[in-house]
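Quick sanity check, diguanylate cyclase:
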Amino acid sequence: MDVLIVDDDAVTRLALSAALEEWGFVPILAENGEQALKKLEMDNAPHLLIFDWSMPGMSGPELCKTIRKREDGQFFYILMLTGKEGNEAIIEAMEAGADDFLSKPFDHRVLKVRIAAGSRIVRLEQTLNQLASRDALTQCWNRRMIDELFTNSIAESTRKRSSFSIMVLDIDHFKAVNDTYGHAAGDLALKHVVNILNTNLREYDQVGRYGGEEFVILLPATDENEAWGVAERVRSAIQFQPTVINDGAKIDLTVSIGIAQFDRSRDINQNTFFERADKALYTAKQSGRNRIICAD
Ligand SMILES: Nc1nc2c(ncn2[C@@H]2O[C@H](COP(=O)(O)OP(=O)(O)OP(=O)(O)O)[C@@H](O)[C@H]2O)c(=O)[nH]1
């Protein structure tokens, strides 16, 4: 687990860094609050943080307050490691948003157990986050999360004036798969479809399970023609890579896909945009399945 050390004193930074490495953590170093905030903007930013109190510019408690004001819902566990001591300092640090407090000079064994306690909380928070945002069966995003990402993607495409398309994908005659091979085989088929999606999409495309066998795929910076290409790749991969179940039997699947490109002049909101893609999916089903239809 990464740990961010924010301290203006180079000797302390190095000593902490060496200790954390010895305990199996990956130290990330910042000399002041501004540098720390930049590190927290990175993808995969650390969530376990150790702050010094007195630093040039932003103090440790000010840094805590700034981080607690973030609105992105991210959780950070903050340990204030300071030359200050006594109840007043503890109260001030924890009121500013610190989760724990340790006075310098400290016993390294105490720091070790405090960091271990903090890392347990960070891991617990990550597990809760995973449970709240992922579909338990397929591990793709659940409906709540894909809806949130959908809203963000529309905002980003509006801000950047970039294209944005979605695919609504539904497995054909899935009820028959369950009825013929059993529910467990149906579950395997759902996982198989998500695997195929993940291997055929770009890193920044997002897959969410909307309901039983219906998936929504967000394709940022993608126009309708490109979305068609992606949809065709996915459709044919699913058709030609059957699900292999435990007894070795192969289940052939096909999918129907509706695609739509976000159009600022007609899509009043997310729902109207989604409905265009969903209607295209309905047309794909009505006109024989195993096909892609572009929204009007
Ligand atoms: N195995 C499994 N089946 C599921 C799950 N969620 C939904 N289903 C099944 O998916 C099937 C969906 O059936 P329908 O909505 O009738 O659609 P369909 O048979 O795919 O037909 P079309 O969509 O019209 O091609 C139902 O039998 C559900 O029980 C799941 O998590 N696992």
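Posting the structure with no commentary besides this: The first strand starts at residue 2 and ends at 6.
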